[in-house]
Specification:
The complex is a heterodimer of chains A (about 290) and B (about 300). Chain A is an alpha/beta fold and about 290 residues long. Chain A has helices at about 30-35, 45-50, 95-105, 125-130, 150-155, 165-175, 180-185, 195-205, 225-240, 250-260, 275-280, 285-290, and strands at about 55-65, 70-80, 85-90, 110-115, 120, 135-140, 210-215, 245-250, 260-265, 270-275. Chain A has a single domain (about 30-290), classed as 3-Layer(aba) Sandwich (Rossmann fold). Chain A is built from twelve helices and ten strands. Chain B has one domain. In chain B, strand 1 (about 145) and strand 2 form a beta hairpin. Classes of the chains: A alpha/beta (about 290), B mainly alpha (about 300). The interface of A and B includes residues 106 and 146 of A.
Chain lengths: ~290, ~300
């Protein structure tokens, strides 16, 4: 097993916390190197189509995108059917969030296309994506407006609606659905608990009634009891309301258990794509991303 | 200089022995202070939303003042200049944002201080070339009121400037709370990333915020020029005053800004009376040092408690 630990010394045994060894701990670089070795060769787009049930709703084709002049994604393609959920996993810096940013229009796109329901949305601004293409982005970690009330936060979610009344009506729907938020509607968002904040972030995105939800690290910074709640809410949105969900999740096990499809990204390249369950059973994926 | 010291003692005694003088100074100071509060509110807006400390604040004020002077010279009522100055400065604010400020929004404080300081120097020189360096004043010809048997003299134009400053401030609060753009500005100030996620074009919000602040300064300057004299190089004290007020009151605290502004105005008038008018600006800068020291002591104390 020598050489797998990041220390890599042949004789000196590195010890971890308490009595646990750190032989199984790998550096990010090692994970990336090994992960690119497990690649299934070039993944044909037809294979991605098949995973999406040959009826893709959200399609990304040969995307090259990044920030400024830096290219993060190289020739990336993705397919998700309507009402499917897809989880992106991979080491830090693999470009998972960049996929979400590109779909929502936060990156510079050099080449390739993104389409939703057959409509090319590659060049749309974020506000147009939200207002007319039905794409909403749920930001990781603390994206409420702290000094506005819960109610005002939801109204801000409908900022792009032509009439403020429409946003207010949508907010009422949210309150009906989540009584937990309704109880706190007139309190400033900064006093909410972590779970309530995440609930507010998710429901604020629902005000515009999007078809596609881009969910960035839903479990980050949450207490364990809230993590299950968040995945339950997302599962509800997928199954009952037919939302298509594209997710990035650092807790790969949770993410893959939840999602229909799993994509493994390494250094801006797609190295593996399969159903979430298949990836959970995959030996290499288990070793590299699921902790043995 | 014993004679000067003697005079100061005399002045302090005079304040205590003559409530009319003391009261008059207080009223004059508060009236002037309302203009400071307005400028400080604009500074707090830009600071809170864009994280830029705008050193150009005072030059915006003086430019607005010159708008009033020019209009008065051409036979218009100088108070008509309030909306005109606001409009002119609004346009200038947008222009500056598109050419320079948009490059420094996400940069560190040092970059934005340097850039806005540069703009303020350029504006000073331009005003000197265009309007000349002499002290000017836009005479509104409103006269004065006398109260308490002629012991308190109240300039009507100062009173009007005070009322207008309060009205503009109140309108601003309502605008931020009620209007769509106001909501977008508040949302961006609280969490810019989240604002982009709900579809707010933050770049447009920044532009509007910067231009709005310039307009506020322009209006404040037009009010100031009707009651006080201006010249191209007197902008910096206004910048320092507004900075000091925001340091004391904090960002996003309109009541605090108003109170600190009025208080500063009164303090300045008393200081000017006691030390002599030539020391009034020196007092402002000296007070800034005191406020900054007090603030750093206060923050240091807080840190000790947190440990």
């Amino acid at each position: 097993m020598g050489g797998r630990g990041s220390g890599g010394g042949d004789g000196g045994r590195v010890r971890g916390h308490g009595s646990g060894g750190v032989d199984a701990v790998m550096s990010v670089d090692d994970v990336s190197r090994e992960a690119s070795r497990i690649a299934d060769g070039r993944l044909p787009v037809t294979a991605l189509d098949a995973l999406a049930g040959d009826a893709p709703f959200l399609s990304i084709d040969h995307l090259r995108a990044g920030y400024g002049r830096m290219e993060v994604l190289h020739d990336f393609s993705l397919r998700a059917g309507k009402g499917q959920s897809l989880c992106l996993i991979g080491p830090n810096g693999a470009g998972k969030s960049t996929v979400l940013h590109s779909i929502f229009g936060f990156t510079d796109i050099f080449e390739g296309t993104i389409s939703v329901g057959g409509r090319d949305v590659t060049g749309l601004s974020s506000s147009n994506k939200l207002a007319s293409a039905g794409i909403a982005y749920i930001l990781q970690d603390n994206s409420v407006f702290p000094d506005m009330t819960v109610e005002e936060n939801l109204w801000m979610g409908g900022y792009l609606k032509a009439k403020p009344d429409a946003a207010r009506a949508a907010a009422e729907n949210v309150f009906e659905k989540y009584p937990r938020l309704a109880e706190r509607r007139r309190q400033p968002a900064r006093v909410l608990s972590g779970g309530e904040r995440r609930l507010l972030e998710i429901s604020r995105a629902l005000v515009m009634d999007p078809e596609v939800l881009l969910v960035d690290e839903p479990s980050i910074g949450l207490e364990p009891r809230y993590i299950d709640m968040v995945f339950e809410i997302l599962g509800d949105l997928q199954r009952k309301d037919g939302k298509t969900i594209i997710m990035v999740e650092q807790n790969a096990k949770k993410g893959l258990e939840f999602a229909d499809l799993g994509y493994v990204l390494v250094s801006g390249d797609l190295v593996k794509a399969a159903s979430g369950d298949d990836l959970l059973d995959d030996r290499d994926v288990g070793r590299l991303f699921l902790g043995g | 200089m014993p004679r000067r010291g003697w005079r100061r003692m005399n002045n302090i005694e005079l304040l205590f022995s003559s409530p009319a003088i003391a009261g008059g100074l207080l009223i004059d100071g508060i009236l002037f202070g309302s203009i400071f509060a307005l400028i400080a509110y604009g500074l707090a807006l830009v600071w809170g939303v864009m994280n830029i400390i705008n050193v150009t604040q005072g030059e915006f004020v003086i430019l607005g003042g010159f708008a009033a002077v020019v209009m008065a010279d051409n036979g218009f009522h100088p108070l008509l200049a309030v909306p005109v100055a606001a409009l002119v400065l609004y346009v200038l604010g947008r222009l500056l944002y598109r050419t320079i400020i948009h490059r420094i929004v996400d940069r560190d404080l040092f970059t934005s201080l340097l850039a806005t300081f540069g703009i303020s120097i350029v504006l000073q020189q331009l005003m000197n070339i265009v309007f000349g360096g002499d002290p000017r004043n836009a005479d509104a010809g409103l006269g004065v009121w006398f109260a308490f048997d002629y012991s308190i003299v109240l300039s009507k134009v100062k009173l009007l400037a005070f009322v207008l400053a309060i009205v503009v401030g109140a309108a601003l609060v309502v605008f931020l709370k009620m209007s769509r753009l106001g909501q977008a500005i508040r949302a961006t100030a609280q969490n810019a990333r989240a604002a982009r996620v709900v579809g707010i074009d933050t770049n447009r919000v920044y532009e509007a915020t910067f231009a709005l602040n310039a307009a506020i300064c322009g209006a404040a300057g037009a009010l100031a020029a009707t009651a006080y004299t201006i010249h191209p190089y007197i902008g910096l004290p206004y910048t320092v005053r507004s900075f000091m007020i925001v340091i004391i009151a904090g960002l996003g605290n309109i009541g605090g800004v108003l109170a600190a502004g009025l208080g500063l105005g009164a303090a300045e008038y008393y200081a000017g009376f006691i030390l002599g008018a030539e020391f009034q600006i020196a007092f402002v800068f000296g007070l800034l040092v005191v406020v900054l020291l007090a603030r750093s002591w206060w923050l240091g104390r807080k840190r000790r408690y947190l440990k």
